[in-house]
Amino acid sequence: MKKGIILAGVAVSVAAEAAIHAYMDIMARESKVKSIASIIGESINKHENQDMLKFNTSKLMWIEEQNIQNISITSQRGDLLKGYLTVNESPSNVFVLFAHGYRSDHNGDPANFMRYYLEKGCNFLSVDHVSHGKSGGKYIGFDYFESKDCLDWIDYLISRFGNDIKIILHGVSMGGATVCKMADKVPEQVKFAVADCPYTSALEEFDAVIKGTGFRHTGTFLKIFNEMNKRFAGYDLKETDVRESVKNAKIPMLFVHGAADTFVPTRMGIELYELCRNKKELMLVEDAPHAESIRYNEIGYHKKLDEFIDKYL
Questions:
Q1: What's the pLDDT tens digit per position in 114-146?
Q2: 36 Cα distance to chain centroid
Q3: What is the pLDDT of residues 249-263, one digit of tens each?
């Protein structure tokens, strides 16, 4: 009997430890020592991401020649956050604040748009979100922390460059959800937002990813996962839901989504577009998987951005 109790206790302990490791692998700063889950995920995505990596690398080669200012602010939580500001050679009062996706940084998603915006005469600020790149912090907010931090970045820009500046928000994936979360909270200097492949909430995104692997009963797992998140990161994942923010958006919004996106299902972007009661447009990019609309239709994407800039700046 005692042996059975001991074995049961060991099993529970091992399961609990495995759950914590799984949680940290998803929610905490990426470790230099990769977990088995990370290695498997990278192996699966390696071939699919090669073309996007080449696309991104071609953009980075141009960016290396630009004069980029390294700047920083401290978040309300006390984390040191890093930003990368490129001031246009031609004086401009228009600033783009770009929010990157999960496990990316300022050299990822933002780099694919920087040249376009600079050539349009804008200044360009990309940031490393909390627990990404060179920014501090241990846990990822899946828009809960990031939206608050980006509002602080807006305050930085206004404080430094004046009340008469104009700001464009642009985000991809988690960054797309971040600008959605900000849409009802931004000051008058923000003129419009671009939400590229945003999710409706982190919990629903996790649910979609898990079900995409073949599992159907996610309720108990997600409930436990959320309780762990409250304990470790200090917030409820239900608070990452962006629907109400989008519904009450103060600014025009451009929603972009790959029609073949199975990671953040296309239906999420469509739902957010339909909820938005401000001026809005939806661009669905044929055949584009997650976060690759810019690669699949760069000309069309730029044309749609041109239209929004002409209308709302």
A1: 999 999 999 999 999 999 999 999 999 999 999
A2: 24
A3: 999 999 999 999 999
pTM for this predicted structure = 0.90
**One-letter amino acid identity for 145?**
F
Q: Measure CA 289 to chain center.
A: 16
User: Between β-strands 94-99 and 69-74, what pairing exists: parallel, antiparallel or unpaired?
Assistant: unpaired
pLDDT at 257: 98
Nearest to 123 by CA among 149, 83, 88: 88
What is the 3-class SS of the chain, one letter each residue?
A: CHHHHHHHHHHHHHHHHHHHHHHHHHHECCCCCCCHHHHHHHHHHHHHHHHHHHHHHHHHHHHCCCCCEEEEEECCCCCEEEEEEECCCCCCCEEEEEECCCCCCCCCCCHHHHHHHHHCCCEEEEEECCCCCCCCCCECCCCHHHHHHHHHHHHHHHHHHCCCCEEEEEEECHHHHHHHHHCCCCCCCEEEEEEECCCCCHHHHHHHHHHHCCCCCCHHHHHHHHHHHHHHCCCCHHHHCCHHHHHCCCCCEEEEEECCCCCCCHHHHHHHHHHCCCCEEEEEECCCCCCCHHHHCHHHHHHHHHHHHHHHC
Q: Which of 18-22, 24-28, 154-158, 188-192 has the lowest mean pLDDT?
A: 18-22
132 in Cβ contact with 103 (< 8 Å): yes
Contact 199, 181 (CB under 8 A): no
| Residue pLDDT, tens place only, 170-213 | 999 999 999 999 999 999 999 999 999 999 999 999 999 999 88
pLDDT given for residue 312 in this prediction: 98
Indicate the residue type of 151: L
C-alpha 221/C-alpha 210 separation (Å) is 10
